[in-house]
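Protocol step 6 of 9: fold each sequence in the batch and record its structure tokens directly after the sequence line. For illustration, a two-sequence batch is reproduced in full.

Sequence one:
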Amino acid sequence: MIKILEVNNIDTLGNRYNGYDMIEKLSGKEFEIKQAVIEKRSDNPNVIEILKNKPLKVIHDKIMYYEEPKQSIKNVLSITTPALFKMKEYKEADIVHIHMLHNSGLSLYALKKIAKEKRLVVSMHDPWLLTGRCVHYFDCNKWKTGCKNCEHLDTYFPLKEDNCHELWELKKNTFNNLDVDIIYPTEWTGDNIKESPILGNQNHLHRITFGIDIENFSSITREEARKKLGLKDDEVVLFHRAQNEFKGTPYVLEALKELETDKKVVIMTCENKGLLDEVQDKVRVMDLGLLNDKEMITAMNACDIFLMPSIGESFGLMAIEAMVCSKPVVVFDNSALPYTTHAPECGYLVKNRDSHDLSLAIKHLVEDEKDRIKRGKLGRKIVEEEYTNEKYYKELRKMYLEVYNRKREKQEEEILPETNDNTEQFKYYLNDVTIRLFGTTNKYGKSLMYKPKSKRIDRYQYHYSDPVLQEVTLDYFNKLEDIAENNPDISFDNNIKLYIEKTLYLVVHNPKFLLRKLMRK
């Protein structure tokens, strides 16, 4: 029996595609599947928490808090990494499958060790692995050349300092000569992988599209759903996920302001409320707020048209949910959505970020019922052929067997120099972390202190792809994990919050000032 460990930040949220549902769908004679998570919400015995006690969770939370907003890095510092390596389930696993790496709490440094010890699978739920920082790169193509001089540090995940090139180099060096199998969901993502200097040389790629439960979305009729939501027969209902970050809501707002039609139009939204209040004098606005699965199925069946003019999308699950309910989907000519919806034959294609063209598309579909029905029927047919749960799990099973039976590639051993200025400076930084966690006299803190040989300088740009720095970082957090695991009653310095908010920033920007502060204490 092949033992598989699915690794993610949480179990039940996003359970269909983060490994949780695989426990039920694929476990049996061939596979024994378990899931390792940071936050466990279910009572499933096959889901195991990576962080076993409060000190480990405290350290994890502090790292997550200051890595991005304070240090402008992502997936570098990690207490989750050494904790995972100690898990019985990890040691017994034949395959380790990581989902949403950027949410997992794992360090990128961990991937080489996992690939040496296990068969490693990484799922790409978005293009984050191709970039230095961002989850969706929109119209920027700097991910193809190194992510230098980032112009959009405020998008998800935001950074104060532009470390994007360093993080891009870290990913490039991590995946160079790495024996890993990568899952991607769409042809669009596959095309991007081919163009990527980070993943373009990978040989073991698997295109596996997500699936949905068709019967579940057919559990209520259009008439029943409209009656439940109080919608009238003569109203043409648009449905949209209202969210300013990625889903194109500002363009929907402008398009509806411009819309001219004799039809009675309703715009129904989920998630955020109030984003379309400006058009209440033209169309009826129904803000449903956050919806559970059952409520979402009702809303999808009740609407006539689904608006999904996202400016960043790697697959577009809600588009598939609309299609299985026989609804036409309006999408911008960007990202993965034209591929997912088979636009323009099925999905209705609109010029990217063009609210006028979006308004014309809405007007056409509102007034042309025949085209709505035609596109809706085609969408249902496409889902039945391409996007079923049965097909999804069948392809996963095939992939796992292929990964297990494939001869693993030999990975070259890195020859590391004893030390360098980069890592010596980084040891000063780790010492500051230790001092603020434990104080200056605590026995645990003393055991973690380094004795750097070089002098601290005012400002240092760490080269995070440096293999020596990686070894130092892994060593430090392995020792810190030992202390936290073996001392469940340990308490941290009371000034830790102040440290997170102010001191770490000083480590990078004014370390001499910080040293003077420490010396005065």
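Sequence two, same batch, same settings:
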Amino acid sequence: MSKVSKIVLPTLLVSSLAGCELTSQPENPALVVAPIEEPRHAEPVISAPVEPTVVLPPTPQEVANLWQRIEMQFSLPQTDNKQITSQLNWYRKHPKYIERMSNRAEPYLFFIVQEIEKRGMPLEIALLPIVESAFDPFAYSHGAASGMWQIIGDTGKRFGLKNNWWYDGRRDVVASTYAALDYLQFLHKHFKGDWLHALAAYNSGEGRVGRAIKRNRKLGKATDFWSLKLPNETRDYVPKLLALAKLLKAPDEYGIAWPTLTNSIQVEQVVTGSQIDLALAAKLAGMKLRDLYQLNPGFNRWATPPNGDYKLLLPVENAAEFKVALKKTPKKDRLHWTRYQIKSGDTLGQIAQRHQTTSSIIRQINGFSGNNIRAGKFLLIPIASSNLSDYQLSADSRLAATQNKKQGQLKTTYIVKAGDNLWDIARKYKVSHRSIAKWNGMAPTDNLGLGKKLVIWQSTGSSNAGPRNKVLRTITYKVRNGDSIARIAQKFNLKIKDVVRWNSLNVKKYLQPGQRLKLQVDVTQIYS
């Protein structure tokens, strides 16, 4: 075999083997040739588009400042006119007013805002208590309107507010808010969705606004709020609210600073489950009695009412402590009691008045009906745990503070008699009947109860001192040895029956030295 054939032969052999399927391991692994793969092209990498980061602005409920939460949800139509400008100018001249009002609003405003939001009402309505009372829950106006929302008696009854000796729902923060918003929603529906008409009617009544609309319609005039002929007070009322909305929307423009109010709940309602002395309630809650009254201005007396599902409004941070302490306090220990022996000449009304309670409560507790009582028998009567003067914001204490506020040089106490009215009393003392009402924490239209004490302030001088210069003062007289009712009455030029009536005395019993008597004395006679 030639050299050439030796070389070609292996080559041909390899070529023929490469075309055959091999079923066994070749003797010479070096002769195995791997198949040549087609080159692969890499798949192109496509990146997903990068979404831009979107930062959503906070919702009204998420912002830190409660005033901002309100402003973000304004929906009443804004306008510019002389009436609104006039109100804006007043607020600009009195920047401290906004600060004082904000401080008063802070405990209540979050609750009010939440309730308005639930009802889908314009948030401008949250500013309405500023117009009505500057958020003063004890406010009482010349029109016999009471509370933060300035609700009159008839409207309060119409929308379910209770009003009795113990409690006035018009001043209850929660109850009055529900009633005010119910009334506004009724007015909104009554005036076919016109909020400005509804607001005007809240101030002066739906009848008056309705008649003004009919009058304009009959004359072919526009019937929007700005075109109606309404009382001056009402014509200023709506502009005041819209001016406040402008101030809150752009405070810097008007040079007004609204204090920041926390956008979170401040108070919580707690069911007491029974009548409770408010001084005890304050102690259980770890707070001052005055602060408790400030949150619960609907309570007139020293305790919560004896009947009804009444609740206490407490700061959130005090509510938990109060609940625990209340649970540990039996119902019988939530009031103080006294055992009173009925004296000859006593009446149930006198006993109730003396102990700052009502005849019905005494009857209920002691299990009898009617007003007949018998001398020598005993009555169980609930009494205040502290001195009545400690309950500084009770109705009696607030009235005393109003009457004692100096309004002139000469103070006269007048006892209302049968047939009296405010006009005649004012004419007798040559003062304004509205002034008498103001001095005595009442409205000029309020009824005068028989025996009611009125304070009248006058300038010095005999010409203004009333008929015969008679000036009555209430004094406390300490009984001395040898004193008798007749002798004391003669000394102060009084009638025996009056001394007996003022002090619920038994004429058959002797006075005791040291005993104290209340006397209505004409000071112009004893000091002249």
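Proceed to step 7 once all outputs are recorded. Observation for sequence two: The chain has 22 helices and ten strands.
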